[in-house]
Design a protein that fits this description.
The protein is of the alpha+beta class and 469 residues long. Helices cover 23% and strands 36% of the residues.
Amino acid sequence: SARREALGAFGDDKVLVERFITNPRHIEVQVFGDGQGNVVHFFERDCSVQRRHQKVIEEAPAPGMSDEMRAAMCDAAIRAASAVNYANAGTVEFIVDGSAPLDPAKFWFMEMNTRLQVEHPVTEALTGFDLVQLQLEIAAGGALPSQDRIRLSGHAMEARLYAEQPAKGFLPSTGVLQHFVVETGADLRLDTGFEQGDVVSEHYDPMLAKVIAVGADRTQAVERLCAALQSVQIWPIQTNAGFLVQILRQPVFADGLHDTGFIAANLDDLIEPDVNPASRAAHLALAMFLQGANQTLGDPWAQADGWRVNQSSQVFRRLQIDGQNWDTRLQIIGANIEIDVDGTQFAFDRETHGVRLDLVQIERQWVGFFDGLAQACLVPDAEADTAALDALDTISAPMPGKILEVRTELGHEVVQGEVLVVMEAMKMEHALAAPRDGIVSELSCAAGDQVKENTILVALASTENPSGE
C-alpha cells in the first residue's frame, strides 16, 4: 500500500523503513577535527528537553550514561567526522532509545551540525576548554589537544531564556527592556547580548540569554540553575523563566527519565501553574511588606508593620492588577504570615516565605518577581481607579501583527465578549473581543493594516453616553 502511494505521488515506489523509537532521547557528541586526519571528542551532551524540536535545556554528562555507552557513541562520532576529514568544531547528533537503561546497541545517527552549537558552554564548563579559542587555533594551523587531556569534571546544565509568553502559546514578547537583572556567580555563567535599555525586536530570534550552572553532581547543578532562574528580573518583556523553573522541578526530569516528548506530555503542569490573580496579589502584598520591613529595620518608629496593642499586626493594602482592584489584609500569626485577598486566604512561612520574592518600582508600577514569573501592580488612588475604568474603553493590539478582519463599524452597539477585530501574528489568528458592552466611538484600523504592539484599535463609549464625553 505504501509503495503504491509513493508510486502514484512521486513516480517511484521505493520506501525507506525506519525504526520507531517510542521514548527517544537526543544525545549529541562534541567533536573537533583539524582537517589533517585528526579528530577528538569532548564527550556528550543530552538535549532531550525540547519544544517543537527546539532545544530548551541541555546538560552534560547525559543522565544514565555508562562508560560502555559513552565509548560507543563517542567512537561513532569520531568515525563519522574522520570519514570526511572534518575540520573545525562539529556536533554529531544521535537518537537514543530511552525506554530502558542506555544500550550501546540502541542509538542511531541523526545528523551532524558543522558548527559550534548554542549549548557549547555546557561542554566548556565540564572540560575546561574554550571551544571558540580552539576553533581559532585550529583555523590558524594549531594542533588539537590529545584525547587523554580532555576530561569530564562535575555536571553542567544550560537553560535558554527567551522573550516569550508560555501562557499565550509561547508568543514572542517585544519592546524595551526597562529592567534586566539576572544573577551570576562562581558557579553560574550568563551569555547574553542584551542589557537594560535595549529593544527586543520582533524581527529576530527571541533568545535573551543562556544561563549555565555548574555543580559537583546533577542534583547540585539543577538546584543552582533553578535558583538562578528564580532570580530573573526582566520587565516589561515577558520571559519563559517561570516555565524553565517548572521543568527543573518535575520529578521525571529530576530523576533523569525524560525524553523528547517530556514538555508536550506535561505542558499543563509547566505553564504558569499559578495564574490565580488573587494569589499574585498575595505575593505582591507580602513582597511589599517585606521590603518595607527591611528598609526600616532597627527603627521601630519607622516600621509600617501594622503593630497593634494586644492584637496581631495587620497591614491593609489595595492593589490594582491588570485593571482589577484587590483588597489585601496581612497578619503575622505565630510562625506564619497570613494574607486575606478579598476573602481568599493565603499563608506563608514567616522565615522562608516558601518562594523567592523580589520587588522593584518601575515608574508608577511595582513589579514583583517570584519563581521566574513577573507581575506588575499599582497601589491605586481615586485617579487610578478612574484610569482602570478607562482601560475598559479600548481594545489594543496584544503584539505586532496584521489586521485580517474588522467585524464592527463606528456607532455599532457591541456586547462584552463580541469579537470586533481579528489579527494575525506569528502565523496564528487572534480574536480581539469587546471588554464590556458599549458603542464603537473610534475605529483606528482596517483589514490589511500592519500594527505595533499596544496600538489602540477600537474605542468604546457607554450606551448612556455614545459621544464618549
